[in-house]
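Lecture 7, part B: from sequences to assemblies.

Below are the input chains for today's worked example.
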Amino acid sequence: MKIFTKIYVLVILALSAANVLAQDIDPLIVLDSAQNKIQNIKSYTADAEIDVDVDFLQMSPRKAKITYEYPNKLDIDTKGFIMIPKYGFRPFMKTIANEDNMVVFAGREEIDGNNCFILKLLPKVDGKIVMIKLWVRVDDYLIRRSETFTRRSGSFLIDFIYGKEVLPDKMIFKFETKGINMPWKIMGNSIDVDEDKFKDADMKTGTVTIVFGNYIINYDDDDR
Amino acid sequence: MKVKILFIEIYKVFIRRRSYIGFAAILFIVIMLLVAVSHEAKTVLDFLTSNLKDSFSFQGNLVNGNLYAHIVLRSLWVHIPLLIVLVTGDLVSGEYQSGTFRLVLSRPVSRFTIISSKFIAGFIYVVLLIVFLAVLSLGLGYLFLGKGDLLVTGNTINIFESDDVLWRFALSYLFGILSMLTVASLSIMLSTLFDNSITAILMSLAIVISLTFVSTFNIPFINIIKPFIFTTYMGGWQSFFEFKIDMQHIIFEAIILVVHIVAFYILSLYIFLRKDILT
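Predicted structure of the full complex, as structure tokens:
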């Protein structure tokens, strides 16, 4: 009987300790720390190479010059045509920076050797974004991964891979999207086309990889 | 003497008004397409990418001279053979009909030289027509719509950088010239066979249209005979607008077309050498 009592006490202690550890993490503090990292960057320029990988679209990687100014000004200067995921930049930054979110701590996870806190951000105001799940690195509070759930456009997963800067060297967007609409009648019938490939009922998955380089962070006008 | 005969044949091709019908038709269609593309292409591209717009922001202009030149190429490719046979179908039969062969052949000129000169004159006409199409569509496109990345729709949407486009157009037009030379050779052969120009032209049109029709069908029975129809290989120019170009396949298609051209030429020679000129 004594043994059972001891085991019971040990289990209760272990559960209490785990509970205390979980409760120690204040999601607002984690989010604040992550926000500070972003908000400390008033401006930056960077060279970027954008590579789109979707099965219904083929294009070679494009080079662009990206200029950002706090809070919401983003210019992408490129010679040709580029496609950029909509929820990668402005709406994502805007939602994270917004203080009017409900934040929930959702545990910890290790991603490629990075120990991360998981936060769930639930915007209180009805918008395009339903929820953002954030993986924030324990060591430096940099966002390692985000998953954005939208009302109409499925979900987007973004992996942020860092080098020396507080801004990522590489961003990998994984997304679901509908196919493309093919206006068959005006495209001519002289080519063999597999029409099933274009049926837009199914969601397609794709990846956009952006590799950044030559960052100038918080630049003066002379730096540009 | 042979060079002189060749120049006379070239002169005969370009002195006739009907030789300019093709140029005029291309000019008309190209201008119409320019108006259509500058007004409608954005709507079409918006429709094409409407599903993606929820997820992506687009930057850059895809309605440009390269898109226009590609649309012209794709739209006109089926119709250019019709314009070509109007001229090449009349090259030999026109002279049967007008009775000029009796006069020409009474002089020391070989039948081989005459047929060869007619083939070369016909080929020069075809090359000039395609060069006219190329210069006009790219020239007008760049002038009015500017340069930019090229969007091509096929089994996937391919977007080529503007610097990566001109060589593709050049090779496509070269392949196109080869395809059109095949059509011209067929019609010159039929022109050698029939004494009446109208019959030769209509017969050429009927063959080209029906074979093109058959080669675009996708029915198992027809797929068996497709490899034996030269029109099946005429669309090979489109392969240059893919990221992975199957050069072996393109060379194979080009060889098939060259074999047809040589075969039609030899058949024309055979028919003309044995022909009794009675008109």
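Note for the exam: Chain A has four helices and twelve strands. Keep this in mind when comparing with the next example.
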